[in-house]
């Protein structure tokens, strides 16, 4: 896996953690447990949307990666910066309050030519998501998948983690101080991953909701095929991702999110079909800012 691929994987991981719950493909994979209702007054948190609603969001990444995959030299590291702009529009709301929206990458920017060229393939890429008014994903996919370039196909796994606007909210009425836990299975860059998020409601002001959260992702040892590389199989030795942050969500505007989080990722793997291969490692610390515009 090249340094540019590691950088992109780090960004995908960050997007997967960009909300208290990044939801996996498939129905029935998400479990939400209320740990405490908080203090009165209590209210049901529900997403509200109207067809035609639009929002634009900027993701800003600062990613620190080691210059070497050798864990013994953590001081040898470099810092990269990247920015990705997304445009989101609600295209339908069903009588049952299911919301269908589409998101497209409008523009990318990176601080190095290599990363810029690699991430440039994201521009124009789009996803659709159908979610309940509690943010539970029911369906999602890539728009116009048959017309994707090979580079976009390699980044196509991103649709499985790019659901920062799709918070999974508790069924029960809650107040300030409420805590809930979300557990789910997801596919991240081809890997089967288990994610657990613990969320705390820190503020409600009109339709604006503030949440602090901690999230962890772990993957068992497995062999997987990264998106867009059908001839490359990777044997995963270990994977762990932890993060925490604060986010603000507009219940009445899908895709409107502001906040920040810090993420640390460690991964060790090797090529599955090559003899005498050496394991490679990804050690990443990332800060992610989210700003709706």
Task: Tell me about this structure.
The protein is mainly beta. It has three helices and 13 strands. Strands 1, 2, 3, 4, 5, 6, 7, 8, 9, 10, 11, 12 and 13 form a 13-stranded antiparallel sheet that branches. Helix 1 crosses helix 2.
Largest sheet: 13 strands, antiparallel
- The computed structural class is mainly beta
Q: What's the average pLDDT?
A: 79
Quantity of strands, as a count: 13
H/E element sequence: HEEEEHEEHEEEEEEE
Helix content: under 10%
Total DSSP helices: 3
Question: What characteristic shape results from the CA principal axes?
Answer: globular
Oligomeric state? single chain
Contiguous runs where pLDDT drops below 50 for at least 5 residues: 1-7, 13-28, 157-166
**Cα-atom Rg, whole angstroms?**
19 Å
The share of residues in extended strands comes to over 45%
Q: Tell me the span between the first and last alpha carbons.
A: 35 Å
Summarize this entry quickly:
This protein is mainly beta.
SSE map:
Elements: H1 3-16, E1 30-36, E2 54-66, E3 77-93, E4 99-110, H2 113-119, E5 126-131, E6 137-142, H3 150-154, E7 179-188, E8 191-205, E9 208-219, E10 222-224, E11 234-250, E12 257-271, E13 280-292
Antiparallel strand pairs: 1-7, 2-3, 2-13, 3-4, 4-5, 5-6, 7-8, 8-9, 9-11, 10-11, 11-12, 12-13
Which terms summarize this structure?
3 helices
